[in-house]
């Protein structure tokens, strides 16, 4: 199987459901859930809050046999969805087929969040290759931009809409992964410090001081300190021994970036459960669990990882 090119063969299924109304949404999701329950397959549904109620009501008593998650909370950082939602459920039911409905992209996702969302959908194909897992991803065609729908055609090997089911002729998840690996826009102003291994303890103090100055409360400021320290430690160990940290305020969030001269070659770094993560990936995994959003650009010229925390 070539997960970066032609549609995959094997037990893993990753269809996109294109819907324009509640009726079309239910016509695609309810049979998916009921088929799984009738076959005694574990079923989880992770969709935005309003959709949870619609689907629960349609399933009636069968809803009690489904695990329900509000994706707007569990998946507000797209980098958290594979390890913390999809793998977390699938790995607890490792024998036999597992079914999951996952809706990570909905109207209201910001332009800053979207590149991470698109990459997430592409990376699902790598994370679950060869596994007996079916992940159905609904897309609100009426409410989402045409670019989002085009990307969905590239990240899902099978498409479902009111006309039926068909293979996607545009399936090319590798193209989506690489096309959104873009240099991150420069902030208008930022506090900055450079660090090496000797200066690593100062990174945490720098982050916490500026985070509180920019309006973060104690708990999110503490989480940001931990996240940035993990990234800086990775820079010292795997990114050339030194790096730069910058912090600023942007659109109601505090953003901290750690950059270094290293390159991250593994597209799933930070998205594997801890026991499966190679050296250098566990720190990013922790960052994904702590942050409201993580954006990354990596290449031969170095790596920059940005951590976003809502004020």
From TrEMBL:
InterPro entries membership: Anti-sigma-factor_SerPK, HATPase_C_sf, HATPase_dom, MEDS_domain, RsbA-like_anti_sig
GO function terms (MF aspect): kinase activity
Gene3D superfamilies in UniProt: Histidine kinase-like ATPase, C-terminal domain
Signal peptide limits: none
MEDS domain location: 14-157
Keywords: Kinase, Serine/threonine-protein kinase, Transferase
All residue ranges annotated as the Histidine kinase/HSP90-like ATPase domain in the record: 195-307
Alphabetized Pfam families for the sequence: HATPase_c_2, MEDS
PANTHER family: ANTI-SIGMA-F FACTOR RSBW, ANTI-SIGMA-F FACTOR RSBW-RELATED
Protein name as catalogued: Sensor histidine kinase
